[in-house]
Amino acid sequence: METIGRDLREMQRVPLTEAHVAALREAGREVRYAAGEALVQPGDPADRFVYVEDGEIEAVDVFTGDRLTNATMGPTQFMADISFLSGGTWSMAMRAARDTRVIEVPRERMLALMARTPEMSDVIITVLAARRRRQLESGNSSLVLVGEEADRDVRRVGDFACRNRLPYASYPLGSAEAQAVATSCEIVSDRPAVIFGRNIVVEDPTPDKVAKLLGLNREFVDNEAVDVLIVGAGPAGVAAGVYAGAEGLNALVVEDTAIGGQAGTSSRIENYMGFPTGISGADLVWRGEVQAMKFGTRFAMPLRVERLEQLDDATFCATFDNGQRVRSRAVVVATGV
Ligand SMILES: Cc1cc2nc3c(=O)[nH]c(=O)nc-3n(C[C@H](O)[C@H](O)[C@H](O)COP(=O)(O)OP(=O)(O)OC[C@H]3O[C@@H](n4cnc5c(N)ncnc54)[C@H](O)[C@@H]3O)c2cc1C
Fold first, then answer.
1. Which of ligand 1's atoms lies nearest the C-alpha of 260?
2. Which of 15, 17, 168, 226 could hold 76 in an S-S bridge, CB 3.0 to 4.6 Å?
3. What residues line ligand 1, using a CB cutoff of 6 Å?
């Protein structure tokens, strides 16, 4: 786990510089929240970067309404998690612990600013990666699985979340935690369930339904056009996503099962340049995914390319298993062997 990010508890915090904050002010707007007011709920689009100028923001346990951890965000800190890069949804509920003043920068403008300011981008991405690591280690998430041990569908969702480095909490049937969640959501306590936030109990749970709630399996405008469509998100597809994004191309990576491909199942890769002491395949590819997202590359999954057609010299059309279509100027097929 140490290879996906640093340990948030031991990290020395590096605040953004005055010049960075001035750039945020120029790109965004000031917003005030009264004590107790919600900033985001699980499932809300991660469409803005929130920098705290004054006051305090806390993570909230959606089931009890209590503060989730002792960690809150005060002046000079920012509210965002890795889903901000991908344009997914918030997985946590956040509210103002007291009257709070923030700068909010819309996502697209913030990504453009980060691309222009690598030093700022490094500070932010280091924190986002550390936060994701902390969330994975603590199981603090609004995605809750009950009865993974007893139900195949719930287990499939757990496998999907695990392989894609998505934080979730898993409680055995009959446990006190499962009972508390069931009471809070007003569902039967002795049945397996997948719950997102406080109100959404996922009926007949599948990875696809959970991916939609997390904003991972996006809706495309029919015949939406991108520069490069990359089919498959194993190491080859993710690497293509990094290089396409870094060249300023509008790139979309479509993955059928889980980011990481075959490498995602490897517990230790020893022969990859730059990792002399080895790295797990999932961590290696996760780092590449974050790097690609930093350059604006988008990922969609689980989504299968069913058909690829060349319409003319410079236009391809991909049809997905959900019937949606995307056009592109180039295609990289990285579906492995
Ligand atoms: C257990 C294990 C350990 C390994 N250890 C090592 C090691 O130590 N060192 C090493 O060098 N190699 C190792 N390998 C091999 C390495 O993982 C592969 O060579 C590498 O993953 C190939 O990468 P790739 O991106 O080409 O393809 P893949 O990793 O196969 O990825 C292809 C991706 O494309 C997706 N896909 C396929 N069809 C479609 C479609 N139609 N639409 C959308 N998505 C699609 C698949 O779901 C998959 O995620 C290991 C493999 C395994 C299984």
1. 49
2. 15
3. 231-237, 254-257, 261-263, 265-266, 269-271, 281, 304-305, 334-336
